[in-house]
Amino acid sequence: MSETTVTAQERIAARVKALESIMIEKGIMTTEAIDRMVEIYETEVGPQLGAGVVAKAWSDPEFKARLVANATDACAEMDISGLQGEDMVVVENTETVHNVITCTLCSCYPWPVLGLPPNWYKGPAFRSRIVREPRKLLSEDFGVDIPESVEIRVWDSSSEMRYWVLPMRPAGTEGLDEKELAALVTRDSMIGTGVL
Questions:
Q1: Do residues 92 and 57 touch, judged by C-beta distance below 8 A?
Q2: Catalytic residue set
Q3: Is residue 51 located within the same domain as residue 39?
């Protein structure tokens, strides 16, 4: 007799499918409405939008200055705004500072530029450990080794202020256009749990 191992992601997918089926069956949602919600988070909201903002900041020093001064207004210039993005602050990674964001109370997160928060972001283990031992957590859980010479700053998002990270532009990308640059940017690099 063989035992099948079900991953956490497979269990979550099964629950989502079951909830979706029940909601359709009870007339709470339609298939079209669910498809539209998925489309919104795949194309209209999410990390691909944040990646575009990062690429523009890397390519346009004046835009970068505006982004660092007022992320909400700079993103609005690119028609990026909305729920959970009313008051955003971008923090810039440098050769001497690595930034990472969390929300120690719940899961406040800049949805318009990062999409929905990953499950680990909402978990108590991440929320407490990233504050107490950020270097160790980044290394153990994300494979990101930040040298001791680099300061790690942890930013605590709240319902009033949502932070996100402007990662450092990778070396050797000077000839790339904004679309090519955006393809290099990951959601985790904009949270600070990844680097490019």
A1: no
A2: 103, 106-108
A3: no
Instruction: Note whether residue 164 is domain-resident.
Output: yes
Tell whether 169 and 146 lie within a shared domain: yes
Neighbouring C-alpha atoms within 13 Å toward the C-beta of 18? 6
Spatial CA neighbour of 138 closest among 153, 158, 116, 157: 153
Is 196 within a domain?
Answer: no
Do 156 and 108 lie in a common domain?
yes
- Which range (25-39, 51-65, 97-111) has the least confidence? 25-39
pTM, two decimals, is 0.80
3 inside domain:
no
Whole-angstrom distance, CA of residue 40 vs CA of residue 104: 27
The structure tokens listed for 103 are 């929300």
**Identity at 166, one-letter amino acid code:** L
pLDDT value for 50: 95
Q: Is the separation of the CB atoms in 144 and 194 below 8 Å? A: yes
CA dihedral 83, 84, 89, 93 (to 10 degrees): -120
